[in-house]
Amino acid sequence: MRLYNTLTRQKEEFIPIASKKVKMYVCGPTVYNYIHVGNARPAVIFDTLRRYFKYKGFKVTYVVNFTDIDDKLINKALEENTTVKELAEKYIREYLIDVRGLNILVDETINPRATEHIGGIIKFIKSLEEKGYAYNIEGNVYFDTTKIKDYGKLSKKNPDELISGARADVNNEKQSPSDFVLWKKEKPGEPSWGSPWGKGRPGWHIECSVMIRDILGDTIDIHAGGEDLQFPHHENEIAQSEALTGKPFANYWLHNGMININDEKMSKSLNNFFTVRDVSKEYNLEILRFFIVSGHYRKPINYSRETIHQAGASLQRLYNSKIKLTSLLEKNPSGEMDNTVKLKLLNFRRDFEKAMDDDINTADAVTAMFETSKYINTYFDESTTKETIQSTLDVYMDMANVLGILHKEPDDEITDDVKQIIEKRNEARRNKDFELADALRKQLLDIGIEIEDTRDGVKWKKIN
Ligand SMILES: [Zn+2]
Known about the structure:
Elements: E1 2-5, E2 10-13, E3 21-26, H1 37-55, E4 59-64, H2 71-79, H3 84-101, H4 118-130, E5 134-137, E6 140-143, H5 159-165, E7 180-185, E8 200-202, H6 204-215, E9 220-226, H7 230-245, E10 250-256, E11 259-261, E12 264-265, H8 276-282, H9 285-293, E13 301-303, H10 305-331, H11 339-357, H12 362-379, H13 386-403, H14 416-430, H15 434-446, E14 449-454, E15 457-462
Helix pairs in contact: 1-9, 1-13, 2-3, 4-6, 6-7, 9-10, 10-12, 10-13, 11-12, 11-13, 12-13, 14-15
The chain binds zinc ion.
């Protein structure tokens, strides 16, 4: 299996530290708000990579952190008239609802929180200080980037770019502009912890380095995240971790491309900022997941009403083949496994694995699924044996499980007409037209669909 390593800017054969085991870390959300569509991409893509490792028989330790102390949390807590801790709790809960909707393997993910690792963070910074990599200026502790010969090796920036790209800092205490803060001195009213440098709180970059070392060890196999994190965040993680341990920090660095909205960069100022929760009010989040895996993870993808509609229609086509197989399986006779199909299935599986082995080319993996789907639709009928159908379903669902799709039972599926009525009702509710919403609810009841409004969107069930 080959993965594109940002460190070397090339595809490399993946060789794990320990045979058949993978230690993976993906930078997680700062929990001060609902996650946006852009956050969904690394969540889905690296979950898909994890699923593929599992498919290949690897044991995966998968860590995604929560940044639960940060300027953004402090400001938002003031705004919402709550505490930083309560705010973090709330948005961690909401995050978990969203990623479950995206069919991320939440129960197989370790989710450490920065505030649970303050002791480790202080110890880590203390060691850096003792080794001469950190300096304290009146309670603010900085990392001395000039001590690192290969600083900039991940983002491949030259020293000038490193300086101009560093986050603008209002204070001019730093010895070099590219130095970054490890420990921030307490400001009145902010949450703080006691430390050898006085009361304060950790900087952002140090959190990931410490949680990785505490949970996974000095060197991990794969560190992943959005490409916007390469500099300064990941560069600084490498600098401080390798300064401390003298060992390589992560063997493979994987970065996903960005999601554009209607061909424009997503930003709050352009007013094209969508949260996953917004999307879930209109579409099943499985469609968002399918949309994400339909593109190559390193290229930008364009989110628009059309592209998401297309993804929904394509996903339905894949579902139709699953539905066909399961219904044939119920009524068709037993018999021999068809050898032509057997050979075909080997080819489909090979194409799928070849795509995934080539730097997680999920776009081509999806194509392999469509080839399988077309074959099922064309050649399977009342005369196909149970054995042939079962083997085909197994291969088809193996692929689907890696991509994290088609996990709903056929019974869960509803027709487009019903979807349209539900959508109309959602719109009515958004417009506070409760009379129309109620009428549409009754219309659904008449055709045997009962709906319920829950915190993760509208749920429905068939009634008799
Ligand atoms: Zn990080």
